């Protein structure tokens, strides 16, 4: 059976390290979450981020806007948080209700407070390798692979799903100098995904298609990472990775407790880094 890539355990360790770092430095980072409407999955993710903040010593402001909030209302909240000197960083939870332009919201956030790392300036810096705030979910995938000592340099990584939240920035991250993976980025509509995935050392699915990657699509011993999640009729979380993959892969993510908890850890890492830079700047 494959090694299970346990993101929960890694994330718990990172939270401990972050709590120690916050306590030792005497900084008091402040972040804000903005949730529009009442999508249950979004409510659950945001609630977990607040729990993590309490554990680490980050102050977290919980901003809720009603489902009927207009695009102008959301942009006004973003402008207010950009200007609020007490807030180190914030993000607006996606998906937004229909009628909103998520890219416009991401671009309206002050790039220096963009703890999601999804502002065009931060994505541009990711591509050019010039600092900036890195995107959380791609960083979470990297942390998971590194945490398990999975080699990346010269390895063939196939990513399924080219969305702006995960697939596209992840392709840029893993192909960056110093990481040096050879990356193939596939649209989930590609007619014969298996032609590509069978030659991969690492397969990463970020498509949001239940059980998209099956055992017959992978090489024996490959590493398989599921990022996309959907919800079954019973409300249970379903991974992009089929259950039979565990019998053939060398390492595989479980449906729960893999990339998600690490994504939260990377978000909070971004907040702490911003607060630390502010403190260093003030004392310099
Ligand atoms: N602006 C923005 N930034 C995001 O980073 C962002 C977003 N919008 N919208 C949605 C996706 C999804 N996402 C998750 C984060 C944590 C878990 C997570 O903690 N999952 C746990 C628990 C899941 C549960 O049971 O509720 C697990 O996988 O075990 C999942 C998904 C962040 N995203």
From TrEMBL:
Any one annotated GO CC term: cytosol
Pfam families: THF_DHG_CYH, THF_DHG_CYH_C
Biological process annotations from GO: L-histidine biosynthetic process; methionine biosynthetic process; purine nucleotide biosynthetic process; tetrahydrofolate interconversion
The protein's assembly and partners: Homodimer.
E.C. numbers: 1.5.1.5, 3.5.4.9
Catalytic reaction annotation: (6R)-5,10-methylene-5,6,7,8-tetrahydrofolate + NADP(+) = (6R)-5,10-methenyltetrahydrofolate + NADPH; (6R)-5,10-methenyltetrahydrofolate + H2O = (6R)-10-formyltetrahydrofolate + H(+)
Residues involved in NADP(+) binding: 161-163, 229
Recorded superkingdom: Bacteria
SUPFAM superfamilies for the chain: Aminoacid dehydrogenase-like, N-terminal domain (SSF53223), NAD(P)-binding Rossmann-fold domains (SSF51735)
Protein name: Bifunctional protein FolD
Pathway the protein takes part in: One-carbon metabolism; tetrahydrofolate interconversion
Tetrahydrofolate dehydrogenase/cyclohydrolase NAD(P)-binding domain segment(s): 135-278
Similarity-based family: Belongs to the tetrahydrofolate dehydrogenase/cyclohydrolase family.
GO molecular-function terms, A-Z: methenyltetrahydrofolate cyclohydrolase activity; methylenetetrahydrofolate dehydrogenase (NADP+) activity
Its biological purpose: Catalyzes the oxidation of 5,10-methylenetetrahydrofolate to 5,10-methenyltetrahydrofolate and then the hydrolysis of 5,10-methenyltetrahydrofolate to 10-formyltetrahydrofolate.
Record carries keyword Chloroplast: no
Keywords: Amino-acid biosynthesis, Histidine biosynthesis, Hydrolase, Methionine biosynthesis, Multifunctional enzyme, NADP, One-carbon metabolism, Oxidoreductase, Purine biosynthesis
Record lineage: Bacteria, Pseudomonadati, Pseudomonadota, Alphaproteobacteria, Rhodobacterales
Domain Tetrahydrofolate dehydrogenase/cyclohydrolase catalytic: 5-116
């Amino acid at each position: 059976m494959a090694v299970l890539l346990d993101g929960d355990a890694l994330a718990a360790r990172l939270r401990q390290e972050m709590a120690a770092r916050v306590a030792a430095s005497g900084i008091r980072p402040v972040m804000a979450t903005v949730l529009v409407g009442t999508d249950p999955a979004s409510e659950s993710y945001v609630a977990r981020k607040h729990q993590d903040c309490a554990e680490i010593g980050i102050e977290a402001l919980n901003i809720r806007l009603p489902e009927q909030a207009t695009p102008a209302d959301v942009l006004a909240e973003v402008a207010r948080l950009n200007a609020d000197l007490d807030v180190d960083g914030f993000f607006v939870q996606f998906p937004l209700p229909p009628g909103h332009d998520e890219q416009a919201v991401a671009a309206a956030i002050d790039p220096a407070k963009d703890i999601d790392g999804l502002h065009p300036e931060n994505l541009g810096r990711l591509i050019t390798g010039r600092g900036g705030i890195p995107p959380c979910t791609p960083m979470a995938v990297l942390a998971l692979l590194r945490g398990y000592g999975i080699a990346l340099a010269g390895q063939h990584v196939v990513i399924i799903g080219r969305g702006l939240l995960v697939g596209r920035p992840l392709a840029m991250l893993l192909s960056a100098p110093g990481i040096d993976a050879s990356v193939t980025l596939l649209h989930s509509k590609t007619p014969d995904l298996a032609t590509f995935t069978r030659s991969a050392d690492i397969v990463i699915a970020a498509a949001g298609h239940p059980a998209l990657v099956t055992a017959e699509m992978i090489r024996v011993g490959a590493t398989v990472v599921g990022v996309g999640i959907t919800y079954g009729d019973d409300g249970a979380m379903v991974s992009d990775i089929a259950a039979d993959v565990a019998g053939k892969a060398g390492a595989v993510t479980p449906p729960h407790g893999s990339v998600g908890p690490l994504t939260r850890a990377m978000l909070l890492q971004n907040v702490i880094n911003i607060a630390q830079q502010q403190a260093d700047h003030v004392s310099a």
